[in-house]
Design a protein that fits this description.
globular, alpha/beta, four-stranded mixed β-sheet, about 250 residues, binds fe (ii) ion
């Protein structure tokens, strides 16, 4: 179901030593979740909130990835797979293509509750993994990985694919019941970024693949432009279309 063994990503795979987390680390997780949930119950996409329940995330303890995967795997074939840190692109795409989401196991300290430059388990699991329980999003993300892996030789095309990732997986929003709802992990996992969107600061454009592929962004700044989809079918189709255009 997960598409065979990993080769390029293999050296980055680790085990999550769940028993080694300290009470303080669980407390950091709990504080991060409690700070985000009131806003997300109102402003997150329903698919995110459903996924959160379905994969059994809890407010009070850092998730044990084996437990998450026992619930997630049978739904969509995705796994949250522990890795040592930031992955090079070829390893990252290989994992997405195999429905394995590279997941850091480290949790930030109290000095960086708002933002960490390196991803941590809060960004990766609280932010990303609930969406992987949604079948259409699940298919989209795998396809995204496969298309990107095939473009490894072309820096320019890969940069365009990076923009598609940024404006969907990381900073995606969706219109539901007349409102803009959050689903990208960069918005879900960051109180500052999420609030910025809810306060109506970024310009929200209708999702348009051609524009997204050309839209530059800065990782280090609050986002000025976001793209709203009407349904997750739209990003699935966008990955197919990107393959036709760039592949
Ligand atoms: Fe991310």
């Amino acid at each position: 179901m997960t598409g065979g063994p990993l080769t390029v990503a293999e050296p980055y795979l680790i085990e999550q030593k769940w028993d080694a987390y300290t009470a303080e680390q669980h407390a950091v997780w709990a504080e991060l979740v409690r700070r985000r949930m009131p806003q997300l119950r109102e402003h997150a996409a329903e698919e995110y909130l459903n996924g959160f329940e379905q994969i059994g995330l809890r407010e009070d303890t850092i998730p044990n990835l084996a437990d998450v995967n026992r619930r997630l795997g049978p739904r969509t074939g995705w796994n949250a797979t522990p890795v040592s840190g930031f992955l090079p692109p070829d390893a990252f795409f290989e994992m997405l293509g195999a429905r394995q989401f590279p997941t850091t196991t480290y949790i930030r300290g109290r000095e960086s509750m708002e933002y960490t430059p390196e991803p941590d388990i809060f960004h990766d699991v609280f932010g990303h993994v609930p969406m992987h329980a949604h079948p259409v999003f699940a298919d989209f993300l795998q396809h995204y990985g496969r298309v990107s892996a095939a473009l490894m030789h072309d820096k320019e095309k890969l940069e365009k694919m990076g923009r598609l990732f940024w404006f969907t997986v990381e900073f995606g929003v969706i219109r539901q019941k007349g409102k803009v709802k959050l689903y990208g992990s960069g918005l879900i996992s960051s109180h500052g970024e999420g609030t910025h969107v809810i306060e109506g600061k970024p310009e929200i454009r209708d999702f348009n693949l051609e524009q997204v592929l050309e839209q530059r962004f800065l990782v280090s700044e609050e986002q000025k432009v976001l793209y709203a989809v009407e349904s997750f079918d739209q990003i699935y189709e966008a990955a197919q279309e990107a393959e036709k255009r760039l592949g």
